[in-house]
Amino acid sequence: MKTAILTFPGSTCDHDASFALKDVMGLDAEFVWHNQSSLEGFDAVVIFGGASYGDYLRPGAIAKLSPVMAAVRRFADGGGPVIGVCNGFQILLESGVLPGAMIVNESLRFVCEDASVKVEADRTPFTRVIAPGKVLRIPVAHRQGNYFADPATLAALEERRQVVFRYCDAKGNVTAASNPNGSVGNIAGICNEAGNVLGMMPHPERRVERELGGTDGKLLFDSMIVWLKEKGK
User: Fold this and answer.
1) Cβ contacts of residue 203 below 8 Å, gap of 6+?
2) How far apart are CA 153 and CA 99, in angstroms?
3) Strands 187-191 and 101-103
4) Which of 34, 142, 191, 203 is catalytic?
5) By three-state DSSP, how is residue 152 classified?
6) Which of 86, 94, 142, 191 is catalytic?
7) Residue 205 is a catalytic residue
8) Order of strands across the sheet that contains 135-142
9) pTM surpassing 0.90?
10) What is the 8-class DSSP label of residue 11?
11) pLDDT, tens digit (0-9, with 9 covering 90-100), for 33-58
12) Strand partners for 30
């Protein structure tokens, strides 16, 4: 199982991802610089957080133009598993790989705290072994993580079970108080219609060891491994 860790100028969580995937999960993970035009030989693609290109214009607005994103689209269209976390989610939205957009947090401030999220769907490679309804405790760290989509898009996301994570309280209740950024519908993560591409604002790579505060994030990578094994990877 070979995983590509995409790296853009300004990326700051790529080494966190490498630690989680290589040192904790024992996977073969390799950094892929943004100017690469092929993802041949990789079984999964991860795009993690940071301020790609300094978040000039909008987070992800310049990164979407990098050559590697054309390769990501081909990889995703072929059914390959892709996860975008925080800035990675923003890049997938800007690229049109996932629907919707990110706007500034409702508080107009950077939010850095632990958040509870309820798993809404197990249809993605990254939630394969997580039962719907389970509450995960995973940190968020962003200023522009307020997910927005028009009513028609939101209705389609709900109907097609593309909402994967929702902000909630510790008991799984979806409340306004448990929403750290004002995201519509308390949405913390969505997938594409096929289910193989996941975007989420919380950082699972920061919750892979008890020493890091817990192992809830590790469940996403456990799921990815199970999914890849099922596909014969």
Assistant:
1) 13, 16, 48, 49, 85, 86, 138, 139, 140, 141, 217
2) 7
3) unpaired
4) 203
5) helix
6) 86
7) yes
8) 28-33, 2-7, 44-47, 82-85, 197-200, 187-191, 163-168, 111-119, 135-142
9) yes
10) B
11) 999 999 999 999 999 988 999 998 89
12) 4
Residues 6+ apart with CB under 8 A from 16: 48, 203, 205, 206
| DSSP symbols for 51-105 | -GGGG-SSTTTTGGGSHHHHHHHHHHHTT--EEEETHHHHHHHHTTSSSSEEE--
Residue with tokens 């919380």: 202
pLDDT in tens, 63-99: 999 999 999 999 999 999 999 999 999 999 999 999 9
**What ranges in the chain are assigned the alpha helix state H?**
14-18, 67-77, 87-94, 151-159, 218-230
Structure-block tokens of residue 206: 């920061």
User: Closest Cα partner for 145 from 63, 94, 90, 195?
Assistant: 90
